Please model this.
Amino acid sequence: MLIAVDHVQLAAPPGSEDLLRAYYIGVLGMTETPKPPSLAARGGCWFEAGDVRLHLGIERDFRPARKAHPGLRVTGIDAFAARPAAHGAPVAWDGLLPGYRRFHSEDPVGNRLEFLEPV
Model:
């Protein structure tokens, strides 16, 4: 029986950890979680905010996820959308999901992210 999503893994190119930290910590307000020593040598970063956990793993032949994405629920979506926009990330509003306000954006390596708030 499934009970929860533990984390979502996204890929990132080698050497992008500082860009990822600047975005996921500085823009989205997440906290970096240390990776276990047995996994740290692989590179990448783990981030969390409350029950939300995102793992960014290094992939040599990296291609950003353009369609696949995590859907991240937020509060105060207008103020939240201003954060990535202020750092040059795209903010594309989409009114197609009944019962929600939402927008899509990208992290600094091009992965698609969805942010949504129930109305």
